Amino acid sequence: MSEQANSWACEVYGPDLPAELGHLCFYAQIERCTSEAQCHQRMIASRQQLFQRINELAAAGDPTGEYLAGEFTNPSQLLGVDEETEQ
After folding, report:
1. What is the SS3 string spanning the chain?
2. Are 25 and 11 in contact (CB under 8 A)?
3. Which pLDDT value is given to residue 85?
4. Total of domains in the chain
C-alpha cells in the first residue's frame, strides 16, 4: 500500500499523531487498519466495550466505576472522539 492510502487522522490521538501514521493508531499492537472506515468501526466497538465495562463496574459498586459512569454518560465521550463524527 502506498503511504497516501494509509493517511488519515487518528481518532484517538488526533493531530498528535501524524496523518501518515493513522493506520497504526490504537490497534498497532494487534494489526494495522487497512482503511479509515475500518479504524472508525474498530474505535466505535472499543468505545462501546469500554463504556459497557465502566457501567458493569459501577453496577457492582466499584467507586472508580461509579465515578467514571457519572463522567462518561455516552460511549462517544470516550477515547478522543469528536461526537459529530461518531455514527
Report:
1. CCCHHHCCCECCCECCCCHHHHHHCCCCCCCCCCCHHHHHHHHHHHHHHHHHHHHHHHHCCCHHHHHHHHHCCCHHHCCCCCCCCCC
2. yes
3. 46
4. 1
Domain range for 42: 4-77
The full length of the chain comes to 87
| pLDDT tens readout for residues 14-23 | 666 666 665 5
84 found inside a domain: no
What is the model's pTM?
Answer: 0.64
Cα–Cα distance measured from residue 30 to residue 62, given in angstroms and rounded to the nearest whole number: 29
Spatial CA neighbour of 87 closest among 51, 49, 44? 44
